[in-house]
Design a protein that fits this description.
Structural class: mainly beta
Helix content: under 10%
Strand order of the largest sheet: 2-6-4-5
Shape: globular
Number of helices: 2
Strand content: 25-35%
Distance between the termini: 191 Å
Order of helices and strands: EEEHEEEEEEEHEEEEE
């Protein structure tokens, strides 16, 4: 269209560009690594001490067993003189064979009877009987014996000497006992181990002999005890006799 004045267009005001905000520089830091815990140092095992190879133990050679040399038994011989008739005897030796027949072998054919008392009972050995029929079969060296002879003779017995202090048990009442010492001894001295426990002692030498403890010794017919002889001791209680 001519003649038309064109309408002026508004001038666009340019929008100022925004000022860019400066971006701070990025600083890269290496991440901090944790301090590693110290590893334990390996403990060095001690070098093993070389063990010496075990040496074989030598087997000890046993010492030879010493053979004990037997000590010879010293034998002694007891001799007892005997009268015809009854004799009250005892031994102070222990023969190897204590059988009555063996002990009396030295007077074989010259004796008729042997007897004693055991536990209150009389026991007898008769040489004319078999041993099975005799009630007295063996000698007890601590005991006294009645021996009846058909003629005088001497009895000899070999054996081991018994110590004088060998104990002899006594019961209350009469006891037939042996006399063990080698030499004669006054009755009170010989029986001092049972002083106050006996009241009478009897012996026999062709006749009865008596010792009473309550009277002075000089008034007794039995004044001493002699080897080879037996004695009747009346004990007032059970006791044990030991000669000095």
């Amino acid at each position: 269209i001519s003649g038309t004045t064109p309408t002026p267009q508004p001038t666009s005001v340019p929008t100022p560009a925004p000022t860019p905000t400066p971006v701070p520089p990025v600083t890269f830091s290496a991440p901090s690594e944790p301090t590693p815990a110290p590893l334990p140092l390996p403990t060095q095992a001690p070098a093993p001490t070389p063990t010496a190879a075990p040496q074989p133990t030598a087997t000890p050679t046993p010492a030879p067993t010493a053979t004990a040399t037997p000590v010879p038994v010293e034998l002694t011989t007891q001799s007892i003189p005997l009268l015809e008739g009854w004799n009250l005897i005892s031994l102070n030796v222990a023969p190897d064979d204590p059988s009555a027949r063996s002990v009396l072998s030295s007077i074989e054919g010259q004796y008729m009877e042997l007897n004693t008392v055991v536990n209150g009972q009389a026991v007898v050995f008769d040489p004319d009987r078999s041993d099975a029929l005799n009630t007295l079969t063996a000698f007890d060296p601590g005991r006294g014996y009645w021996l009846k002879m058909s003629a005088p003779a001497t009895l000899t017995v070999e054996g081991t000497k018994l110590p004088s202090s060998t104990p002899i048990g006594l019961t209350a009442g009469w006891n037939l006992v042996a006399y063990l010492p080698d030499s004669p001894m006054a009755v009170a001295t010989a029986l001092q181990s049972i002083d106050g426990k006996y009241d009478e002692v009897r012996g026999f030498a062709t006749e009865a002999l008596t010792y009473l403890a309550i009277i002075p010794p000089e008034f007794n017919t039995l004044t001493s005890m002699v080897p080879g002889m037996g004695y009747l001791v009346h004990a007032t209680e059970t006791t044990t006799l030991r000669y000095p």
